Give the backbone structure.
Amino acid sequence: MSARMGLRRRHWRPIAAAAALLLPGCAPEPDARIETEEEDEAHIRGHVAGMAAHHLCAGVFVVGRDYERSVEEVVTQDIRPFDRFDWQEDFEYAVDFETRTASVSGNGVPTQYAEYNGDQGCTLLPAGFEDVTFEPTVVERLSPDPEATAWPTGDVGAYHDPPPAEVDVAGLAAALDWAMTQTEHNTRALVVIYAGRILAERYAPGFTRNTPQISWSQGKSIASALVGAAIEAGHLEAGLDDPAPVPEWQGADDPRREIRLRDLLNMSSGLDFLNLGSDPVLRWTHAHEHSRIYFEGIDVFEHAIDQPMDTLPGAIFRYRNSDPLTATRIVRQAVEARGEDWLTYPQRILFDRIGARDYVLETDAWGNFIITGYDYGSAWDWARFGLLHLWDGVWPTPDGGSDRILPEGWVDFVSTPAPGAELLNYGGLFWVNRGGAFPGAPEDAYWAAGAMGQYTAIIPSRDLVIVRLGPSPADHGAYMSDIIGEVTAAIDR
């Protein structure tokens, strides 16, 4: 069987207008971009349909690797109920299980297609494309057999048995039961790891510890770890305070040559990359540069690096996808310069070494990881990712040794507020609690976080990692803060 795993390959053909969207030097100042936005309603609804096609595809084929649901269930449970997706009542949808594609269309809206490419997940096809431009690759999971390997790399001995004496078992169970009964939050996985082992867990019906779930911007923290692992392995010859090695920024008069790798990871690059948040009018437009990567089918790496600057690097923390995308593109170029395969690199350099077997990092049509949001991981994948950071980037190997995966001092960097983060709430592609964002959590807590309440919280002072997954439309920050507070209260330290 080929690397496409038997999928029927179609020819692709780009439309010139789509490429024109990415030309450097074409982006006006933010106000001008908003004022000159002239996209008609059908175009906007096409963007809505594009994201829906992606989510339908991924819900059926990526989440469906572990938890098979009908097409209607995916729409009903993952898309239709949530305001952020703006589902239109006239939308029609279908899934072709032979070609492994999902489609969504509506009145006056060209059909939007997303294609499942195996271990690269689902890709929203750009307008005029009939296929991706890269050859999809099987990502082998090479960590040892989990059923025959000790925790944490394997699953043997994963649970505390019995729980430590300082744990109020009844209180902990009540806390997790309470969390699962808050039905407006749709929690699908909740795992508490204490003193290195699983202390308690809960799953919604159908979901398991191995079900890959959309993790949204938790993937930004994966991007951080990939940069660190590449530096530690000697694959990326750049330090945090070196200029970011982006060839397109190295012109003598280009101010972007002053952007450091540190600035990208602190989301303080100074790149003019407009984030309009959830503005009801503008969030589906070209002007929303931060989110175009999710609904337009563009080359996400080129979109990130082709931006001008509008403020000095390192000065201000601004939550923008440009920075982690650029950092990941830097790793891709370094890896490919070594003659190594990019699509398998995260599994080899990071996930295999910690026993994470369920991650699916999705790509655009050019094979670039949309790591800022289209990433899927299971509850136990994220538990292991959290433990890697709790343990200062060093992993205990099955043979009794240790494996330094992240550079010494890397975890201190990612968990320290960026100089430009006035609220003391953001570090190195992780959120941090130094400013008290989560009142229920200790001050030293920090977390990978994604839209709709995806969290992997690391709490060094309590030797805890807490993972929460599921699509929450409500105030999930307060909810997660309460979960952390209840869990820590049940452990007398």
User: Anything to note?
Assistant: Residues 1-37 have pLDDT under 50 and may be disordered.
